[in-house]
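Appendix B. Worked example

We walk through a single record from start to finish. Start with the input: the chain for Elongation factor 1 delta, Pararge aegeria, length 260.
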Amino acid sequence: MSALANEKVWLEKTIYTDAERNYYESLSKGNQASPVVTGSVLASEVAKARQHIKNSLECMDSVAVLAGVPNTEISNKINTLENENSELKKAVDDLRKLVISLQVRVESLETAGSSNSKLPKIITAAKVSDDSDDGVDLFGSDDEEENAEAAKLREDRLAAYNAKKAKKPVLIAKSNIILDVKPWDDETDMKAMEDAVRKITTDGLLWGAAKLVPLAFGIKKLQISCVVEDEKISVDWLTEEIEKLEDLVQSVDIAAFNKV
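Next comes the structure step. The output line below is what the pipeline stores for this chain.
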């Protein structure tokens, strides 16, 4: 609006209107004294008035634009900047909260570590105190006879402990074996085969249950179990002893072997 503060075109409009009316009246009356001069002056005045009006209207348009007509592009940029600013502010707040939580956690871990580091020192001090107490005679006794009696008592207790330990039974490693003893044919006397196998006896061998298991074509095998002491009886020795019964036994297989 300051651009129109010095404009007087609207205040002097009556002057220009009167001048235009006089011009047309002079033309109508046929004033012949100075028609060219008067017409040119009036025409110039009218042209100036029109130019002033045109300039005033253009100024009014520019002032209206500057005063309040919104600019869409600028508004969009401003809105974008405001959104980015709010997002950045939120991110900074989240980072601040995370840093604070990490700081609290580190402080708690440092406190726990310091308390744990003090515990071994306390335990070490207690052990040193106990060791020092062991070497101190609380009763102030230096009698050699009493020391000799204590040593003898300690030796007697040690001997009794060793004797008691020696009386405990020694764990013997044993194995449970199931053998498949196969005959030559279906005419083999299976009862005689079982009796012959059970006659194999030695220290550390104990025969168990036996049964006949069908093979094929009417032939059955003798399946017999036994328990052996591992230090005294080997599986190879036992199978070899059974295979020596050549009249009754064709072969011997180990069906199962378990530690007892």
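Two observations about the output. The longest strand covers residues 205-216. The beta strands are 174-182, 205-216, 219-229, 251-259.
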